[in-house]
Amino acid sequence: MNLDWSILQQRPGGYWPLAPAITATLESFAWDIQDVLGVRFGSSLVAMQKHHQYYCFPTREWVGVQKHVFQQQLSDPGLMTGIRHKFELLAPRFLRLSEAMSTQPLPDLSNEELWNLYRSWRAEFKRGYVYGEPPAFVLKDVLSEYLEVQLAKHLPGEKRQAIGKAFSLLVAPKEKPFATRQEEDFLRIVVLAEEGKDVEEELARHTQTFSWVPFDYGNEVWDETHFRSQLKELKSQRFDAEKRLKTIHAYYANLERRQGELFSRLGLDEGLRDLFKALQVCSYLIDHKKEVYTRGNLLFEPVMREIARRAGVARRLFRYAVDNEVEAFLKRGTRVDSRRLSARPLGCAYVCTGAGNLLYEGSEATSFLDRAGLSAKKASQFAEVKGLCGCAGAVTGKARVLLSAGGIGKLAKGEILVTMMTTPDFIAGMKRAAAVVTNEGGITSHAAIVSRELGIPCVVGTGNATKVFKTGDVLEVKASHGVVRKLEVKGKNAKPRNK
User: Fold this and answer.
1) Does residue 171 sit within a domain?
2) What is the count of structural domains for the chain?
3) pTM, 2 dp
4) 232 and 292: one domain?
5) Domain identity same for 481 and 417
6) Do 223 and 128 fall into the same domain?
7) Can you give the chain as a three-state secondary structure string?
8) What confidence tens digit (pLDDT) does each residue in 160-177 have?
């Protein structure tokens, strides 16, 4: 397979599984997208090297599919709205199936019955997923670039930060992302605690409602201890939870009116308005897809634990099994080799092609990845996270990774602040930052709001920026696209640069 591959997403820590979820997403991008957009990538792969995972597509096909979908959106203003409608019909069906499977008497089922559950869940996963992520993932970057250029033409003479603020407002979805809904609910508990009320039942309810948020494809879940710790921290900071709740409410209550006023003031024609609304749909879909499939993945976890138990393999290793190994075990009793599974996070490649799905391991994986231009050296130089645009703009600068506000004094002017989330204790330092990147939060988070006030690029809700980057890394922040990437820079000194 002589293709030039581009790494489009990376995850550290090795928590991405292979089967069934990731293998299903690879097939959706490679082939199933044809049914939605009339175009496909033909191939896709996930590579694992040294406990890092890389999601890759053929470079030429990636560019071609982007152009095709962009032209589709130009000619059909309702394209993304129609795709959203289809996903919203399929998502509840997937969640109902996942929930039903989580309540099955799994130990009493036969291996054949377990295989039928597995196969049915994977098929339903793909049925909705192809509408939930691939179209928005493909379109959002190229559409963002186009609209930023068009917006600058309607704001002649304005500084970059003014254009960034306008862009951030016009692309914001009217629906609250799940991170904001979780924050709102938790802040109400903080207010009750500040009033001296017993919040134990509320904490239990909140945990039951939002424990899934960080799980994704197999990460941790939040428990009551996590939320008690957050409550204690906010109380110690004398955080004004009530004021924050009012800010969130006001933002969404006035968002549609503010967008309409800005559209009118700028004199944007109907065509440009439709494209901004399409980008709003892209942002909504990416967030809503993550909510639906994170919940579905967690609900399906008991089934995967039961299969792993019967196979005699630790669940943490069984995540690296592939679909045909699961099928061979459940249908024919073929042993699952724990040693092979444990070696895969160190080096393997799973490739989805028209000729079938291929797994390369060991020396075969090394040879394949070298031929594909994805050697360990090249892959190790790539580090990228994706999140939501808190404030538009682009900048390059050195990272300053801080896990708490205690080290904010170390943040030098022009550095890029990378942290879990910001609180009022961060504000003095944020004024020196060239950009802000957070693991948590949505477009109404503290980090996003303060960044818009300061006029600096901000990417929120990346999930893992503090794990991917380290202090001193030279980062490129393209906030309009929600992308932060580590750059390989020759020389020791890298000065912040606005783009």
Assistant:
1) no
2) 3
3) 0.86
4) no
5) yes
6) no
7) CCCCEEEEEEECCCCCCCCCHHHHHHHHHHHHCHHHHCCCCCCEEEEEECCEEEEEEEHHHHHHHHHHHHHHHHHCCCHHHHHHHHHHHHHHHHHHHHHHHHCCCHHHCCHHHHHHHHHHHHHHHHHHHHHHCHHHHHHHHHHHHHHHHHHHHHCCCCCHHHHHHHHHHHCCCCCCCHHHHHHHHHHHHHHHHHCCCCCHHHHHHHHHHHCCCCCCCCCCCCCHHHHHHHHHHHHHCCCCHHHHHHHHHHHHHHHHHHHHHHHHHHCCCHHHHHHHHHHHHHHHHHHHHHHHHHHHHHHHHHHHHHHHHHHCCCHHHHCCCCHHHHHHHHHHCCCCCHHHHHHHHHEEEEEEECCEEEEEEHHHHHHHHHHCCCCHHHHHHCCEEECEEEECCEEEEEEEEECCHHHHHHCCCCCEEEECCCCHHHHHHHCCCCEEEECCCCCCCHHHHHHHHHCCCEEECCCCHHHHCCCCCEEEEEHHHCEEEEECCCCCCCCCEEC
8) 767 878 888 998 899 988
